[in-house]
Amino acid sequence: MPPFLAGSCARQRSLLMTSTPLVTRFAPSPSGHLHLGNARTALLSYLAARKTGGRFILRVEDTDESRSNDVFMQSLFDNLRWLGLDWDEGPDVGGPQAPYRQQQRRAIYEGWLAKLDAAGLTYPCYCSPAELSLSRKRQLAAGKPPRYAGTCRELNAAQQADRVARGLPAALRFRVPTAQTVSFDDVVHGSQSFATDDIGDFIIRRTDGSTAFFFSNAIDDALMGVTLVLRGDDHLTNTPRQLLILQALQLPAPRYAHVALLIGMDGAKLSKREGAMSLGDLRALGYLPGAVRNHLVRLGHSCVTDGWLDDAAMLADFDLARLGRAAARFDEAQLLHWQKEAVAHLSDEAFRDWIAEHLPSGLTGSQLATFAAAVRPNIVFPRDAMQWVAVVFGEPTALAPEAADAIKEAGADFFASAVQVFERGLDFRQTVREIGQATLRKGPGLYMPLRAAITGETHGPELAPLLTLIPAAEITARLSRAQQLASA
RNA sequence: GCUCCCAUCGUCUAGAGGCCUAGGACACAGCCCUCUCAAGGCUGGUACGAGGGUUCGAAUCCCUCUGGGAGCGCCA
Questions:
Q1: For A96, which of A40, A277, A370, A433 is 20 to 30 Å away at the CA?
Q2: pLDDT in tens, A398-411
Q3: Exposed, middle or buried, A70 (CB in 10 Å: 0-12/13-18/19+)?
Q4: Is the ipTM here above 0.85?
């Protein structure tokens, strides 16, 4: 390890950032939809690579065929791209180390498995799942760590032949060395060391012939030239296992950055209720990708900038040295804030496209532009446009109770005057001024009844632009209706 | 149970022994602006989990405890 990579303090982590192009990867298993926690890991990995001019790899870890499927894989690609990430190598774009789906890399794994075997570091294990779980339970009950008991570790050739003859399927285990210490320097946690005696022999190939995570994941990182593995904290204590394999095979070990997990507001795992918080769900709710990015990049990573970060600014602001160690809670209130920012930062065209599905067809360009500009500050999600579409382009909706109150407060005479002035077809400012003169009202007392009568609400976008879009006859009709209500 | 990780406002966080009377952002409350809401501006309340050390001085370093989390899977 180059000396400048040693140690773990922030300054050195900064050095790591600026001096070397990093090769990072995101390695999801396609066994479910992309969750927020994973999305954050992907984002951070992506930023680390892009920031240093390195490469970002997408590798699909689908060795467990029963849990993986192509629908989830496609959904993963979609959601990642929606988030704004792109990758230099991956199942769908190829690359020098193709294939990038682990199911398709079995031949590669077999080669490395053979090397491990030749070194005497593997052995077949004939224990059944039932036996293993029983053994685990017993150990737990006895207050001991539930590790593999080593039942098959020292089987001789005859004993092995016997199991084979009995038709017992064999998994392959890695022979963990005794009395050693595995050390590494974590980018976020600093130096770590683990005793191999605390690690039980673990399975690297299942009875069905597929390789297990500890093995294939480590091998692929090495083979694909990954130099920084940025992943969840939950892998921290798994790391020595992977280091042991890499060591045994004389493969280069990456640097590891274990970021704290994302948890829910209740402090518990981000999953059950937040199962509604997969990227796809957020997207369906109408959240903008930039909002999600801005929120995620500040979870477990502190930004120098408090405000909105566009793509370039986010890249500039990102720094491995500012990755945090403590678990972060997902707080939807903060996401909502970034959503508002995201809406504000949309271009006019993008904003119109965003709410397009709720807009009536056949609007002129200028109607569209006026409407969008007027309504934008009041919209957080596309569906929020519906209310104002109804007010402006549709039939009057039911009066909100506060609106009815405001109308009654103003009185029938107010609306009688208002109708008269409106019928003269003056521009908005002039109209309001004259209504004010005629009714001796001003300020809120003048605008509120008009707003209430015309929009049915006591709050909403600026009145003037809205009124230019509503047919004059419709406006006077609504005012007359208000007049009736007020005199009733 | 064993091993490991973590601990600053309600939330995200700044903080690498004196710049800390603990800063910012979100949220909340109030005021201003304003035709309303939103936006914007200003103001306010709220935090170093506890106890011991080390030191002239600790949010910061050490120890213990407490609380949370992860791993110990033929899941990844």
A1: A40
A2: 888 989 999 999 99
A3: exposed
A4: yes
